[in-house]
Amino acid sequence: MLNKFKETGERYKLLKELTEVAKVESALLKGARKFFEKNKYTEVVVPHLTRATGSCENMNTLFEVDYFGKRAFLSQTGQLYLESLIPELKKVWCIGPSFRAEPKADSRHLTEFPLIELEFNGNFNELLDGIEKLIMSMIKEILHDNGIKIVDKKRLSKINAPFKRITYSEAIGELKEFGMKWGDDLKNIHEKYLVKKFGNQPLFITHFPIEMKFFNMKRNESNPNIVNSADLILPMGGEAVGAAEREFKYEDVMKRLKKSQMFRQLLKLGGGIEDFKWYLNFLKEMGNVPHAGCGIGLNRVTQFILGVDDIRASTVYPLNSETLM
Amino acid sequence: MLNKFKETGERYKLLKELTEVAKVESALLKGARKFFEKNKYTEVVVPHLTRATGSCENMNTLFEVDYFGKRAFLSQTGQLYLESLIPELKKVWCIGPSFRAEPKADSRHLTEFPLIELEFNGNFNELLDGIEKLIMSMIKEILHDNGIKIVDKKRLSKINAPFKRITYSEAIGELKEFGMKWGDDLKNIHEKYLVKKFGNQPLFITHFPIEMKFFNMKRNESNPNIVNSADLILPMGGEAVGAAEREFKYEDVMKRLKKSQMFRQLLKLGGGIEDFKWYLNFLKEMGNVPHAGCGIGLNRVTQFILGVDDIRASTVYPLNSETLM
Description:
2 copies of one chain form a homodimer.
Chain A: H1 15-38, E1 42-43, E2 49-50, E3 64-67, E4 70-74, H2 79-83, H3 86-89, E5 91-99, E6 112-120, H4 124-144, H5 153-156, E7 164-167, H6 168-174, H7 188-197, E8 203-206, E9 229-234, E10 238-245, H8 250-259, H9 261-268, H10 277-285, E11 292-297, H11 298-306
Parallel strand pairs in A: 1-5, 7-8
Antiparallel strand pairs in A: 2-4, 3-4, 5-6, 6-11, 8-9, 9-10, 10-11
Helix pairs in contact in A: 1-4, 1-11, 8-10
């Protein structure tokens, strides 16, 4: 029903349905924040108009803004800004809009969505444990909220941590019939197949090829071709969380940045190493400590909670290339 | 100290100071959310790429974005989007970035800051009471947080509700020596004078001239020249909250919109009534109930809490026309 009105300007007609969705989003955000409070994280206010340091892997989906004659981007992540406070604060988080200039207006894509982000002074296993606790805190909030009527709470009450964990290599092994080989990126169809195969529960896929991922994801100690990263795949929602241990030594980060796909895109856009100046100087002058973090796309979690295939049904006012209001 | 580094790209050098500011911002946001939880408000996810319905009074400070060939703005307020859920949810809130294309890089202006917004089905007096409780909840969180060291808690512990309330007309009466007459806008220097005059405590100024304010602020029942609006002025921070009862009947809103200064600016920008189509259609078709709301600029509250004159000292990464990073 909620994906019927492509023109967001008419969604007010669905007031009763929007109300139920708003309650679910509100409870999920509350559940996430309870995790942060319980575990003594500090909230950080990060900028949403940035240079390249607000970008994710794919610089082709950045919205540009004329910023008093300079070029600015609408940020996609606050990760590097959060990281800069790790040496003192140890555990930090933010929730804010993440922007993607994605022209497709379909069941999978939004141009703006809330991204829940955390960084903390922990290792890879502590990161996966933390993500499980955070997701379970969000689910718990839904289960305990008597005002929420549209969720199948019986189905949700069967979700338990720890979540199943398989490596990217194992995932590829399971996907031979799709003609997938090591180094290929997992698409939505593959994620759906894997989630179903492993019992329709949240599924971690870990240790992706280094070529594929963000430049500061930490290279694995025993296999230089992979990084200590994880994607969390949810039934209905697909890839909901991207997570990794981070490189934190100046020389390592600099080397990885210069070799990254992202940096090649940045050069094409007329940018260069000076776009990362503050972050690199911070690492060189102040240093950082071992840490890890993740970003959780709220709408993907909401899809999972609501059991809806269409991302436009996961929020009150979904924004895509056709729904500006 | 924190306003020394004009180039935000070098602020990481002040890591220890930034850490203390982050703790204060985090506690203030937590205190605000405690008010919302306690009073059973629902959080709503609002868009930050919008048409004119994401704009405040002054359309000259909108950042423009090329949105797949259409013109979009970076939003300044989620107010109208929040209002559209009042008929069912009654009490709603959001906290998100508010963007202002303000070229001045000085002690008063930021191009992005977190705006705490609420709308609820109450009247003007209930609104002022609510704002007092919200601000006091923010202060309480600071006072109870033992990790916060840079705040003069003794000074803060003397702040008590209810806050002093004077009308705009009374304020003008106090400002004769400045040559102010009825209809003139209050500037920072006037606000400072009034706050000092009334004991260096938070000060409500109410019932502003209708010409001066946002088109859907409710016209006063007994004096058609003023609206049921309030600004909260804080020592050091200045105008921290803009608040009002809202017009909610389609015909009244339409009439006020067409006569507003904002609408004249919109026409100059090549826009028109179609930019408000969804909001006007919502009022016409669904109707709304009496309600009121406000927006609280976080940095102005933080200035008050920290006792700092310069807004650049009120946040970790202040964004103005010179500090893009």
